Amino acid sequence: GRQAGKSFVSVIKAFTFCLNHPKARGALVAPTYKQVKNVFLPHMQHCFGSIEGRLWRFHRGDMAVRFLHNGAHLLLLSADNPDSLRGPSLAFWGLDEARAPFMQEAFLILQHCLTQEGYPHQGWVTSTPAGPAHWLYERWVQHRSPQGTGLNPDNYPIFRLRTKDNWHLPAEHF
After folding, report:
1. CA 164 to CA 26: how far, in whole Å?
2. How far is CA 163 from the centre of its chain?
3. What is the longest distance spanned by two Cα atoms in the chain?
4. In this structure, how many other beta carbons lie within 10 angstroms of the beta carbon of residue 73?
5. Could you read off the pLDDT of 86-129 as tens digits, one per residue?
6. Pairing state of beta strands 56-59 and 64-67?
């Protein structure tokens, strides 16, 4: 559901991966840079602001977080031009708000970026439900690729969150 904490958890997952895997490279990807700025950055400050400057530092010029103690690197990227996501060798990525129309292309491109050697590879997606005619439903519920071939359900687990599961929200959100 909306405001259930999916993006918040994605930031925590990315930071945890970086803190535990020296020299890992990862990315958090939102549909637009405005969403990167208005969603990821406030969550980073809220959760990890007390250790900024000691364990991590945000570099606005290249929209990246560098982990000072172990050399891990977290890119904050926009998917509004999915083709721009090609190229990096990553250990992990998280794709936020994946129901946007161009996010399936971003997902398919990012899948091929999980190539950084020596790390467990992870890609995760957060989104609000979009219904059975959407690519997320086909992949995660029906376990079908765009070409119609079957996908291993173990590779596409679903963790559902409802708005009311976020006990931090005021009652008027329900």
Report:
1. 30
2. 19
3. 48
4. 20
5. 999 999 999 999 988 899 999 999 999 999 999 999 999 998 87
6. antiparallel
Rounded-to-integer distance, Cα 170 and Cα 58, Å: 30
DSSP 9-71: HHHHHHHHHHHHSTT-EEEEEESSHHHIIIIIHHHHHHHHGGGBTTTEEEEGGGTEEEETTT-
User: Cα 35 from chain centroid?
Assistant: 12
pTM score: 0.87
Give CA separation, 138 vs 6, 109, 112, in Å.
20, 18, 20
Provide the 8-state DSSP code for 172.
G
Q: Is 166 helix (H, G, I), strand (E, B) or coil?
A: coil
> Distance between CA 97 and CA 28 in Å, rounded?
11
